[in-house]
């Protein structure tokens, strides 16, 4: 995976330097101009033999199939994270339980939070009752 970098050179293609002991196949960097919807323009230098290039969250490709593959990979990654959410939620509950058993200040804070939550629920019920009485 080659990472394109903003190109600050002239308008001629840039030949990559030959690596010692490796044959030079004439790989070139090609300039790609990208304009975003907000009107900003950036020029990236991409190796011409790459199907797809990346710069932070930007994917550069001339192949529709490559873009589709990238979108599918991103979707699969997001689905994997979503599917793991119940496990993480359970981990948080388990850690809270352990902390309440081991750490007295955490336990006291949890109890205080629980009392405040109960008071908020009761106040909500009172407000609903008062509001319903005003309507009658």
TrEMBL record:
<protein>
    <submittedName>
        <fullName>Uncharacterized protein</fullName>
    </submittedName>
</protein>
<feature type="compositionally biased region" description="Polar residues">
    <location>
        <begin position="1"/>
        <end position="12"/>
    </location>
</feature>
<feature type="region of interest" description="Disordered">
    <location>
        <begin position="1"/>
        <end position="27"/>
    </location>
</feature>
<feature type="compositionally biased region" description="Low complexity">
    <location>
        <begin position="13"/>
        <end position="24"/>
    </location>
</feature>
